[in-house]
Amino acid sequence: MLIGYARVSTDDQNLDLQRDALTAAGCERIFEDRASGVRDDRPGLAEALSHLRQGDCLVIWRLDRLDRRMIGLLGFVEELRQRGCDFRILNGSFPIDTTTAQGRLLSHISAALAENEHDVIRERTIAGLASARARGRKGGRPAKLTPKQVCTARKMLADPEMTIKEVAEAFGVNRATIYRSLGLGSYAKGISGEAA
Q1: Among 9, 93, 131, 186, which one carries the catalytic annotation?
Q2: Can you give the pTM of this predicted structure?
């Protein structure tokens, strides 16, 4: 029996291409995940593995849909082999079928290539962030309060009758944002000394 596994990293990505390829390959069941490939806790993959029986074949669309780490992938393929299961990658230009010696060799080579691709992407991302920082751009979310609002919040808190909670409500933010923006120390420390 052919059992398919499809994965995308985020909720806004689409599984249709993988589903179509797995269905065309003859997969009777297809299990899916929306999770990063480096995560070990993927319920769809766990369910696919629980349905595999001796003589069955796990089919994926591309190598990186399973794992980007070579050691993890090689261990995974070996575990399938010991269970008497096969492994197939459909990627049209580079298909792998571990029922053959050539397929086993190609699975090792492709695992190394997938790991290398992941490392190159990571290095590019780090270099891009460093370059942006050097040009004065800061990553992350934009500040919830403008410098003018921070100044106004300081003035409001100068009034002994005004609480952090009231200032936060006035700006439509939570108390932690006020503490952070004004540099008033830890959120919990401030809460303990304040009347909620």
Answers
A1: 9
A2: 0.51
